[in-house]
Amino acid sequence: MVKRILNYAGWLLIAIILGFLHMRIVLGPGSKSTSGGITFLNGIHDFVLWYVGSIIGAIIGFLFILLDIFYLNKKLQHSKKATLIRLSVIIGLAIIIGATHYFLEKIANVI
Fold first, then answer.
1. Residue 102, Cα to own-chain centre: how many angstroms?
2. What is the mean pLDDT of the chain?
3. Which chain regions cross the lipid bilayer (predicted)?
4. Treating both helix axes as pointing N-terminal to C-terminal, what angle do 2-27 and 36-67 enclose, rounded to 10 degrees?
5. Which terminus, N or C, of the chain has the lesser number of Cβ atoms within 10 Å?
6. Phi then psi for 107, rounded to 5 degrees?
7. Cα of 77 vs its chain's centroid, Å
8. CA distances from 89 to 56, 60, 66, 83, 101 (A)
9. Beta strand extents in 23-110 (DSSP E only)
């Protein structure tokens, strides 16, 4: 049981990193100016990067864990490529969730 929890904690960490990567792509790099107003905006940029990136990563991780518990464990029980398939599934989920977030934020103007 502990091994399974640690395994899912690792997948959750990968999902959160993918969430940060998505937000880094959406927000772009922060500016490097040292003036007072720009420094404040850099702080907001970093906060949004960490806050929204962790939320998106948690959503990716939650959906992946549900998918893994209810579907992938049964299908990949004796497969030698189980880790590679799980990695491709979590990357696919990140792409789908990232595209949905982008659509809702930029095109539909909901977020």
1. 13
2. 89
3. 5-27, 47-72, 84-104
4. 140
5. N
6. -90, -50
7. 25
8. 16, 10, 12, 10, 18
9. none
The shares of helix, strand and coil residues in the chain, as percent rounded to the nearest 5, are: 85, 0, 15
Q: Measure the CA–CA gap between 84 and 31, rounded to whole angstroms.
A: 37
Backbone φ and ψ for 32, nearest 5 degrees, come out as -105, 15
Residue with tokens 């927000």: 27
Distance, CA of 26 to CA of 10 (rounded, Å): 25
Residue with tokens 């003036």: 35
pLDDT of residue 58: 95
Whether 81 contacts 40, CB under 8 Å: no
pLDDT digits (tens, 9 = 90+) for 2-51: 999 999 999 999 999 999 999 999 888 877 766 766 777 788 888 888 99
Q: What are phi and psi of 6, to 5 degrees?
A: -65, -35
